[in-house]
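Service request form, structural biology core

Requester: graduate student, group of Dr. S.
Request type: structure prediction, single chain
Budget code: on file
Notes: please return the result as structure tokens.

Sequence provided:
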Amino acid sequence: MSTEIQHRVERGAIPLLAVAHGSADPRSTTAVSALFDRVRASRPDLDVRVSYLDHVSPGPEDALTDLAAGGVGEVVVLPTLLTAAYHSKVDLPRVLAKAREESPWLRVSYADTLGPHPLLLDAVERRLAEAGARPAPDTALVLVSAGSSDAEANATVRSLAARLAERGPWREAVAAFASAQSPGPGEAVADLRERGAERVAVASYLLAPGFFSDRVRDRSTAAGASVVSEALGDAPELARVVLERYDAAVAARHARV
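Core staff response, request fulfilled:
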């Protein structure tokens, strides 16, 4: 990143608009808010705003309109999602295209999704340790994401499970999905127990608590899981990823100018 761009970033000249999924469960909004409070604390001069695709206001359309109306000329939009799937590939690009039509003077840079990123594996391990789980040869691991109809997103989760196995020493590590794909968390736990794992730890690869985190905990526990970790939430590693994605989007934008 050039000195000029770095100075603009440090002065907060380019706002960050995060777009999270949104949930009817207030725990989810609380967790997302806590994450971006941590981001603000890490970089106090940065104008950080949060919007939601569903259930919670403001939506990204309204947030972009407010920024444009306030005289902002440039913004970084961050899909606050753990995998790149339909929302980041289709929904948000449509929103951004409409915003460019309505406010052509507003320059919008589209950042990468939070995952995959090595720091997210650190965050997963942090939450497992907080729940009392440690890698051990007699303990298998299930990494559970929300699940998607996007094959690439699901493959990413499987790849992350394989990387966690390498970081072990877990007996083995497999991926599971709370919806859309198989195996579900209960199926994965039961299969590992049947194949001889004395203990099974379940890692929630979810941004925030809510419907899916409750489903993961209930079904995993019923199938015999020893430990189920909390959603990643405001883990400090996530705040670092947010700022990395922001900085990369700013640098890429200005490299093209």
